[in-house]
């Protein structure tokens, strides 16, 4: 990436509001009440980096993720992809955007069709990208190897896989579209702690080997700080603090960030003082380092 190249993603003053459910009488008396799930969010994701978005449940992280992949539209604000306003895309550019920005979901049980074998799940994504049926089998095998799964698992249904295997299939399906930006929405929160480090390391390896830009969304500041080049801390729909992981982790400026750090189990608090060099170097996550 050249120094003057635009970031892969830039959000400017993104807002998403919803109308609260009220009775007709309440609406007539006081008017419609609205709630902002995302409020004035601006952030920049440089090409080829991992950007971490951290916050508690209900902070607006998943809503923002859905806006980025255009599952929902923002109420106001601007989203730029490679320096271009997404709202101005014609049909062809919008199709390329949908292919280039993929999402890995938190709930692997609902994001994978239980009636489709893994082979079909990946084949459909490859077909959407334009890969021929003749080439799809070899490409599916390559993708399974990329995410650390054995080829025979292609013949299984999602319910025949472990949670970690299903999440790897979800990552393989996203990679089948050859994206340039991956949105990973709480990709490890539904997994056993013994598997969380493996999935985070897989995302880090994909970033390094493919140059894939990643927005990693989590409520776990201690884990995300180890693999991200920048962090954004989100609370009540706003990004209240952002910066390099070492600065956010060791010299937090916002009270909410300090509250998140105080909530880290005591076994991790001690590691923070000895792992600053690892955070700066973005070393692989040891599963033992995230066991609570």
Map the helices and strands.
Elements: E1 9-19, H1 24-30, E2 34-45, E3 50-54, H2 61-68, E4 76-81, E5 84-85, H3 91-100, E6 101-104, H4 108-111, H5 118-129, H6 133-146, H7 163-175, E7 181-185, H8 193-210, E8 213-218, H9 221-224, E9 230-235, E10 238-243, H10 245-250, H11 255-262, H12 266-274, H13 276-281
Parallel strand pairs: 3-8, 3-9, 6-7, 7-8
Antiparallel strand pairs: 1-2, 1-4, 4-5, 9-10
Give a written overview of the molecule:
The protein has 292 residues and is α/β, with parallel strands linked by helices. It has one domain: P-loop containing nucleotide triphosphate hydrolases (Rossmann fold). Helix content is 41%, strand content 22%. The protein contains 13 helices and ten strands. It has a six-stranded mixed beta sheet, with helices on both faces. Strands 2-1-4-5 form a four-stranded antiparallel beta sheet, covered by helices on one side. Strand 7, helix 8 and strand 8 form a beta-alpha-beta unit. Helix 5 crosses helix 6 and helix 6 crosses helix 7. The radius of gyration is 20 Å and the shape is globular. The C terminus is likely disordered.
Q: Whole-number average pLDDT?
A: 86
Structure class: alpha/beta
Poorly predicted regions are: 268-274, 287-292
Termini separation (Å)? Answer: 38 Å
Total separate domains: 1
CATH class designation: Alpha Beta
Topology as H/E string? EHEEHEEHEHHHHEHEHEEHHHH
In CATH, the architecture is 3-Layer(aba) Sandwich
Number of strands: 10
- Helix content estimate: 40-55%
Note the beta-strand portion.
Answer: 15-25%
Rg (C-alpha, Å) = 20 Å
Helix run count: 13
**In this structure, how is the largest beta sheet organized?**
6 strands, mixed
């Amino acid at each position: 990436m050249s120094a003057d190249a635009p970031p892969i993603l830039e959000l400017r003053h993104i807002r998403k509001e919803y109308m609260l459910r009220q009775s007709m009488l309440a609406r007539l008396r006081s008017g419609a009440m609205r709630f902002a799930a995302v409020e004035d969010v601006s952030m920049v994701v440089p090409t080829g980096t991992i950007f971490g978005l951290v916050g508690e449940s209900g902070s607006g992280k998943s809503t923002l993720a859905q806006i980025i992949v255009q599952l929902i539209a923002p109420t106001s604000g601007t989203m730029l992809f490679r320096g271009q306003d997404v709202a101005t895309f014609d049909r062809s550019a919008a199709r390329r955007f949908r292919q280039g920005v993929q999402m890995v979901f938190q709930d692997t049980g609902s994001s994978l069709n239980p009636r489709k074998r893994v082979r079909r799940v990946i084949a459909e994504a490859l077909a959407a990208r334009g890969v021929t049926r003749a080439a799809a089998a070899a490409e599916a095998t390559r993708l399974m190897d990329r995410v650390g799964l054995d080829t025979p698992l292609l013949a299984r249904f999602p319910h025949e896989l472990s949670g970690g295997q299903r999440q790897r299939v979800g990552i393989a399906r996203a990679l089948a579209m050859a994206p340039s930006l991956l949105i990973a929405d709480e990709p490890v929160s539904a997994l056993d702690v013994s598997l969380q480090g493996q999935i985070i390391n897989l995302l880090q390896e994909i970033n390094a080997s493919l140059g894939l830009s990643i927005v990693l969304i989590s409520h776990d500041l201690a884990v995300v700080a180890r693999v991200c080049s920048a962090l954004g801390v989100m609370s009540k729909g706003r990004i209240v603090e952002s910066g390099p992981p070492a600065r956010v982790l060791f010299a937090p400026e916002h009270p909410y960030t300090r509250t998140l750090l105080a909530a880290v189990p005591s076994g991790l608090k001690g590691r923070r003082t000895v792992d600053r060099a690892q955070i700066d170097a973005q070393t692989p996550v040891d599963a033992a380092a995230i066991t609570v």
